[in-house]
Amino acid sequence: MIEMKNVQKTYPNGVSAVKGLNVKIQSGEFVYVVGPSGAGKSTFIKMMYREEKPTSGTITINGRDIANIKDRKVPLLRRDIGVIFQDFKLLNNLTVFENIAFALEVTEEKPQAIKKKVMEVLELVGLKHKVRMFPNELSGGEQQRVAIARSIVRSPKLVIADEPTGNLDPDTSWEIMKIFEEINSLGTTVIMATHNKDIVNTLQHRVIAIEGGLIVRDEQKGEYGYEL
């Protein structure tokens, strides 16, 4: 599903964030991306949805070289990718329903279809009863559930999560991980950058470790491997 060949990223300030990455990720995999702060994890993640563009090399998703597509085609690319952030990025002036529906309205879905899809994903994340509430009326965990619902409402084949439990307490983090496990069990590829050692070691999946911009470890059913 995803292939990187000789991918390098050097920022304008001269910092070399990733240095010749080569990796393949198959459809339906669940992959943790781990490593020390500043190792290049976020750059690795961001290049997959073209938040960052590689300096050289190729990134192919479903046979399409996304490193070289025109900027105006990036929004179309992102329709097939769900992205979840540590800080939720919800629109505070919109209700839970409206935040999720917004992702469908930009693709001009019919109102009836939008309502059906929004309620289905709210059922999956356990928030149907909060449909009319605003983000500031929700807990952090509930806000992250809304963010997850928004990211999967278009049924993407790929979900990318950058530290999705970073701002959550341990109990809430486990609840969020159950949702990611469910999403993955339905066939969606999940790629998650995380510093959560307990989650990685307990819910074992493939682990890609990045240090100094290089992949130093790539293991099926791997462990976190770093002391916190």
From TrEMBL:
Topology of this chain in the membrane: Peripheral membrane protein
Domain ABC transporter: 2-228
Main location: membrane
CDD domains: ABC_FtsE
InterPro entries xref list: AAA+_ATPase (IPR003593), ABC_transporter-like_ATP-bd (IPR003439), ABC_transporter-like_CS (IPR017871), ABC_transpr_LolD-like (IPR015854), Cell_div_FtsE (IPR005286), P-loop_NTPase (IPR027417)
Cellular localization per UniProt: Cell membrane
GO (cellular component) term, any one: plasma membrane
GO process terms (BP): cell division
SMART domains named among the record's database cross-references: AAA
Keyword Transmembrane: no
PANTHER family the UniProt entry points to: CELL DIVISION ATP-BINDING PROTEIN FTSE (PTHR24220:SF470), IMPORT ATP-BINDING PROTEIN (PTHR24220)
Similarity annotation: Belongs to the ABC transporter superfamily.
Subunit structure comment from the entry: Homodimer. Forms a membrane-associated complex with FtsX.
Protein name per Swiss-Prot or TrEMBL: Cell division ATP-binding protein FtsE
Lineage, uppermost ranks: Bacteria, Bacillati, Bacillota, Bacilli, Bacillales
